[in-house]
Design a protein that fits this description.
TATA-Binding Protein; globular; alpha+beta; two-stranded antiparallel sheet; six-stranded antiparallel β-sheet
Length: 125
C-alpha cells in the first residue's frame, strides 16, 4: 500500500529582517488527522514517542501548543511538528524533503492504533 503523498508543492522562503531573527514567507503544512478522536495531550505523547527514536528534536518555544523542531538523523530533513486541535501538523521548511515527512508519518502510524488521513495546505507568498 502506497499511502499518502508527501510531495511538496511549494516551499516557504526565509527572510532575515534588519530587526533580527528569521521570518518565513509562504507555508506548506501537512495535517495528519487520526480516525479516532484524541486529545492534544495524547497526541503530544505520541509525537514524543515517535521523535524519541532516530530524531534530534526540541520543544524550545514558549507557546500555547506543543511545537517541535525535528531533524531526521537518517535523511537529514528538518521540519516543525505541531499538535493542535486534535491533529499533528508537519510544517515544511525551505530545505525539507518528502523523505523525512514520509518517515515521520510511517513511524506515527507504527506507534499508534488508528489510521490517519493526510491533507496538504499551501499558502503561497
Amino acid at each position: 500500500m502506497a499511502g499518502p503523498s508527501f510531495d511538496i508543492p511549494a516551499r516557504p522562503r526565509r527572510r532575515y529582517p534588519y530587526s533580527g531573527g528569521v521570518e518565513y514567507e509562504g507555508e506548506t503544512v501537512f495535517t495528519l488527522t487520526p480516525s479516532e478522536d484524541h486529545t492534544d495531550e495524547s497526541l503530544t505523547q505520541l509525537v514524543e514517542v515517535v521523535v524519541g527514536g532516530s530524531y534530534t528534536y526540541g520543544d524550545w518555544f514558549d507557546l500555547p501548543m506543543p511545537l517541535f523542531l525535528v531533524r531526521d538523523d537518517e535523511t537529514g530533513d528538518v521540519f516543525r511538528v505541531a499538535v493542535r486541535d486534535g491533529t499533528v501538523e508537519l510544517h515544511v521548511l525551505p530545505a525539507t524533503e518528502s523523505a523525512g515527512l514520509r518517515r515521520f508519518y510511517d513511524r506515527l502510524v507504527e506507534e499508534s492504533d488508528t489510521s490517519w488521513s493526510v491533507e496538504c495546505r499551501v499558502d503561497a507568498p
